[in-house]
């Protein structure tokens, strides 16, 4: 009986390591798939202002029909990224930044910004950024910056789209 204890413990250890490794690596795979899907229309480090989601058009996983999405798949390997956000007056909006592990590394909504336009620089720890700017440091080169704009009705997208399109992202 005691000769089975070693192999059983090794099998349990391998199963635990395999489960944890698969779980840890799957987050990177999911984010990479999302980046590829979103970047097909414009590339990386460019803000894409999507149409309202429908059953046939869902670039964001499980989108809300009352939200207009703008997304910027980013890659910091060529330098920091400047993200500019212009909130629509009287409408809830938020900027969320997700890293390569799908972790949320930054969130700001229109109320926290006082309803005013703002900008942040997204950078790795070793990247130089201009002094006096708000900087969000991340551990990975790739991820997605996502802006959500709440609509009262789908018809509002026509009047709010010009304001939404003032938000942008670009490599410094």
Secondary-structure map with pairings?
Layout: H1 5-39, E1 48-49, E2 67-75, E3 81-85, E4 93-99, E5 104-109, E6 118-124, E7 135-138, E8 142-150, H2 157-164, E9 168-171
Parallel strand pairs: 6-7
Antiparallel strand pairs: 1-2, 2-8, 3-6, 3-9, 4-5, 4-8
Structural features, described:
- This protein is an alpha+beta fold.
- The protein has one domain: Domain of unknown function DUF1254 (Immunoglobulin-like), CATH 2.60.40.
- It is built from two helices and nine strands; from the N terminus they run H-E-E-E-E-E-E-E-E-H-E.
- The strands form two sheets. A five-stranded antiparallel beta sheet has the order 1-2-8-4-5, with helices on one face. A four-stranded mixed beta sheet has the order 7-6-3-9, with no helix packed on it.
- A hairpin with a 4-residue loop joins strand 4 (93-99) and strand 5.
